[in-house]
Amino acid sequence: MSAHVDTFARDHLPPLGQQPEYLLGEGDLAFPQQLNCAVELLDRHVAQGRGNRLCIQASGVRWTYADLLEHANRIANMLVRDMGLVPGNRVLLRAPNNPMMAACWFAVVKAGGIAVATMPMLRSKELKQILDKAQVTHALCDGRLAGELQSAAAQSQTLKQVRFFNDPGPDGVEALMAKQPAQFDNVATAADDTCIIAFTSGTTGQPKGTMHFHRDVMAACACWPRHVLRPQEDDVFIGTPPLAFTFGLGGLLLFPLSVGASAALVEKASPAELIEAVKAFGATVLFTAPTSYRALAQLPGVAHTGLRKCVSAGEALTADTRAQWRDATGIELIDGIGATEMLHIFISADEAHARPGATGTVVPGYQACIMDEHGRPAPIGQVGRLAVKGPTGCRYLADPRQATYVKDGWNYTGDAYSMDAQGYFWYQSRTDDMIVSAGYNIASTDVEEALLQHPSIAECGVVGVPDVQRGQIVKAFVVLKGDTHGTDELARELQDFVKQSIAPYKYPRAIEFRRELPRTQTGKLQRFRLRSPE
Ligand code: 3UK
């Protein structure tokens, strides 16, 4: 049944006993044995007469579905005929979010390859880790990002075929694909053939590759978008997460195409440029992270755009950020927690059901449960470990950490949550970000949320630091707005301010002012770097 000639992915799946339980088989989640998600998401629209509909916009580019299909087909032919790709080979993709990156993603998946998309900012050392881990054989890379890939490729035993796109030269992908036919014989992959290996954004340790099947991609499209986002055919999706991050891959490519809508891809945008792009492309659905919503909410132009739905994920959304965005735009944010391991969002609430401070309820198709320290369901209201299962789930590529993420069929996301009587899930912290000070459990986000109410604070990060007396004390790293100066007096003011709004034992006993906070390339605060500076 598998179409993979190169069986690397199947050979390195975690043993079945270490995989999560999958909730599959009913309604939208019953998949045929042969399934190629690229054909479902792209060819199908053209076959059904929607080829002339708008599909992808970018600066200077306006592609219909037929245009994207033609590009993907020509690149797929180039991969197979010029570059010797066989089904199951891993293809590294490296580019900012742009139309050629999207076309290459579809080309790889149509040809039965496995797309290994990487963040544009990765350096050769990090690229080399990925090349080795996924035994990457081919690469398609934006010409402007050639340098770091070339030095990683020079040290790789497996990567032999590299081509560059957005490159005008005679060896560039554009010239090579022009010689190829515009038709391509799609590879009839099995629903459980791997089509992407997504690397985690890495707040700690060695990167982990997560394997997702063709059916996982379709399942992600059938769950959160259909039940919570509920986009329309005429929606124009836009946002900041890279296509190499499954938040961006779903939000800016898979989900718009799954409903015949379109995406506007922006390569790199400051908050002001993003709002300009929203207006220029007529965007209606925005995907970005909480910190970005805070920055955007300050901009004068944000009140009058055509946006109708705004999605926040990647980090906890505080009630305060939600209120700032509503005040600035009139739009209630759609919060959702997703994970690279789960492919996309599994707990969320739409505009009408949002509760400030809560992430939402479990997305149809998934189950979620709060587990106590013995792995048993915890009572309502008690803080414990978040465990989820659904059609998608964690399969690490050859990694012993599989046994930490998956236990008894449940995926443990590493988050501390509680669930209330109405089934709403309340984020507390990462399980390793719980601060224990003088016997009290203190969630770093509680303190961050309290601090963010203060008018002088732009951003902050709270961690526990070792203390002889108390085991740990709460320490806040604070970035101030504009040219406010960090003084001892202001620090004391902030401490009193926190004591006014939350239990006084949670106040930050130490405060350090910083110009910026350490973040991953997907915008997540790296609390471990605040705990132990390199
Ligand atoms: C945290 C959240 C509270 C949480 C992601 C949407 O973030 C994504 O994937 P990652 O693998 O990180 C997963 C972890 O990030 N997190 C994400 N969203 C929220 N915490 N509220 C949220 N709304 O710790 C989770 O375990 O980088 C998000 C879709 C796809 C994704 N990959």
How does this model look, in words?
The chain is an alpha/beta fold. It has 17 helices and 25 strands. The strands form 6 sheets. A 9-stranded mixed beta sheet has the order 2-1-10-9-11-12-13-14-15, with helices on both faces. Strands 16, 17, 18, 19 and 20 form a 5-stranded antiparallel beta sheet that branches. It has a 4-stranded parallel beta sheet with strand order 4-3-5-6, sandwiched between helices. The structure holds 5'-O-[(S)-[(2-aminobenzoyl)oxy](hydroxy)phosphoryl]adenosine (3UK). 5'-O-[(S)-[(2-aminobenzoyl)oxy](hydroxy)phosphoryl]adenosine binds at residues 200-201, 246-247, 313-317, 335-340, 344-345, 359, 413-415, 427, 430, 522.
Task: Describe the protein's topology.
Blueprint: H1 8-11, H2 37-47, E1 54-58, E2 61-64, H3 65-82, E3 90-94, H4 99-110, E4 114-118, H5 124-133, E5 138-142, H6 146-154, E6 161-165, H7 173-178, E7 194-199, E8 209-213, H8 214-222, H9 224-229, E9 236-239, H10 246-258, E10 262-264, H11 271-281, E11 285-288, H12 290-297, E12 309-312, H13 319-329, E13 334-338, E14 345-348, E15 361-362, E16 367-371, E17 384-389, H14 402-405, E18 406-407, E19 410-419, E20 425-430, E21 434-437, E22 440-443, H15 444-452, E23 457-467, E24 471-480, H16 488-501, E25 510-513, H17 527-531
Parallel strand pairs: 1-10, 3-4, 3-5, 5-6, 9-10, 9-11, 11-12, 12-13, 24-25
Antiparallel strand pairs: 1-2, 7-8, 13-14, 14-15, 16-17, 17-19, 18-19, 19-20, 21-22, 23-24
The structure holds 5'-O-[(S)-[(2-aminobenzoyl)oxy](hydroxy)phosphoryl]adenosine (3UK).
The site of 5'-O-[(S)-[(2-aminobenzoyl)oxy](hydroxy)phosphoryl]adenosine (3UK) has 24 residues, from helix 10, strand 13, strand 19 and strand 20.
